[in-house]
Structures are given as structure tokens and as C-alpha cells.
Amino acid sequence: MSRALALLLLLLLLGSPFSPCAAQDPPAGGSTLPTCTTCKGKGHAVLPCDVCDGDGKAPCTDCASTILADVQERQLAILRVTDAPKAKELEETLRKVAGSVSELNRLVGRLSPGSKPGFLPCPSSCKDGVSFLNPGHPCRPCEAKGSMKCKPCQGKGEMRCESCEGRRNREQPCPECAGCGLAPDPLRRTTDAAACAWCEGKQLLDCHVCDEGQLEQLCAHCRGAGDAVCRKCSGSTKLGCNKCSGTGDLSAYFGAKSSNDCDKCDKTGVLECSACTSGRISCEKCKGNRRLKGSCPTCLGTRHAPCGGCTMGSDRSWTTTAERLAAAGSGPAALAHFDVALARIEARNVERLQAFEGTPKERDALAKELAKDTTALKDRRAQVAKKLGL
Q1: Mean pLDDT within 140-167
Q2: How many domains does the chain contain in total?
Q3: CA 318, CA 342: separation in Å to the nearest integer?
């Protein structure tokens, strides 16, 4: 039995220590366990869509899918707590596999999913617009460009977010309480700002969103669209002729002769794709139904979700707790939590800027936008300090 499975069974028998909804010792001063301020105790709330980050647009599911990366990051966040050695092993495996696939695609000229948003691989598998199997001859299906513009998003790499249907907000499990409706009591934490107040530093919360790790939801594979681009023809409805390798010319195979025109494709280099309708096929996962029952996207079937207050550089736990402590009159503890929140925001901003691949001008614009969060929190800290006479 794996360590992760053994831990899960133990938690089911003894009760989980991760959830803020678990029984707590009565707090000092007669305070009661407060209702979650984000969802008002409902466990779910209308919030900025977590798929598109509230802008109504999401990566195109056909040419720039980030679904796999999102799932892997959440899986790693859970494993780092429940089985650290396995998490390290998985990270190493993912790095090796990603490197191998990337190198293979580079050698044969194919695009990796998400490597070139707005474009799809040439259906004739050419390399840089030249036939891979018929060297020296331009590839006709992609017009010697080496890739195909994605029709659904018109080469933009993003489309209307299907999760919120472009509305920017949608009802979703509360990220603060993992769906339980309750929040940690600030009066139980008056000095310690080192650990996340939502999960008590354990980095996981019990998932109160699903039933035994399963949930009916929008299909993650097509993000609720119900169909997907035909991978065989890259949505173009055309295939590269397999006799002439998409060139319309047979000279590489038969040498010089009176006519080197390919008789199978009538020298066009392309054939009609019979696998799709107008370049689309029904989603292979949900069979076009848009919804399906599967592993809960919040906990990935483990019944424990990464704490939304502290994972991946989040400052929300410290910011929220600082406000609650300030309201309760615990000034020094509130300022200490504000300081941790600021440090986490600044570290996260540095990481985002280091990973940014835009132009210097775009980078400067992003830096100014990110600095607004830091400035706003510093101003709020100053207000609290002045109000409490600190």
C-alpha cells in the first residue's frame, strides 16, 4: 500500500486535521467559530472565474491548452504534503518527459501543445515548411509555413472562457474555506504569523466540494465546448497526401521522369480529411455532452485540496487574518500578518516577472500593474497602524 493511500485511510478513520471546519477548542473571550466572510457560510460563491482569472477569456482549448499543466501543479501541491518523496519523483519524471518530448518535436518540426498559441501542427508533419520525408520540396498543406493558424481562435491563442461563458464571474467552491462555510477564529491566533491561519500550516484543507472525490462538472478536456479540433488535420479539413508527403511531387521517390506529379492527390499535395466534420470532432472524453462525472477538480479525488490561502505564493490567508485581528483589536498581531502578506506578494511578483517572456515595454507595464497590489496593502497596513495607535 502506498504511503499516500495509507495516509488517506488513516484520515478517514481518525478524522482529518486539515479542515478549518473540524472541531476546535473553544476560543478565549467567548468568541465563536466565524462564518466564512467570502462565501457567507454557503461554501460556494460567485467569484472571479478561476479559469480565466476574471477577464472572460481563456487559453484556446485547441492550440494553447494549459489543462494538463494545471492538473499537474495541483497534484504536486497535494503530494508535497501527503508524500514528499513521491512528489519529488514525479517532478523529476515530468522534467525528463517534457525535455524528451520537446527535443523530439524540435527535431521533426512538430509543435508541442501550448508551445505556439494560435497555431497548430502541420497535418503533413513537415519541418519548417519543408517536407520531412521528401527533402527539398515545400509542404503544400501548410503553404510552407510549418504550422497552421488555429481557426477557432483566429491565431490569437485565446477564446471566450467556457467555464464562465465570458461573464468573468461564476459560482464556484469557496477558495477560503474549501466549501465548508466556516473560517478560522482570529482570536485563537494572536501572535503567530509564521503559519497559514486557514490550514494551520498544513497546506491542505478537507474538500467539502465533492462526494467521495467525485463530481459532475464541465468536461476539463474541452472545457465544456463539447467538441475539439481534429488533431488529424489540425482543423483544416485537409490532410497531407501520404504518397508524396504533402508536396504533390514524386521525384524524391522515383527520380527524374517525364512527369513527377503525384497521381493520388492530383499534384495538390492535399487530401480531404474523412475523420471530422468541418475540422471538428466530438470531444473524446465527454462524447459531446459537455459535462461528465470524474475526479473532483478541487481535490483530484484525494478529498484534500491545496489550501487556497497559502499555496503557490498566495497571501490571502495572512491578509484576511490581519483584517480580522485588527477588527478584534489585536494590533501587533495584525501588523505581523500584514508584513508576511507583503513579503509573499513581493516574492510572487518577482517570480512572475522572471517568467515573463514579453517585450521590455510589456514587462515594465506588468511590473507597474503588480506594484499596485503591494502599494495598496502597504497603505492599508499604515491605516490600521494609525487607527490602533501603533
Answers
A1: 84
A2: 2
A3: 9
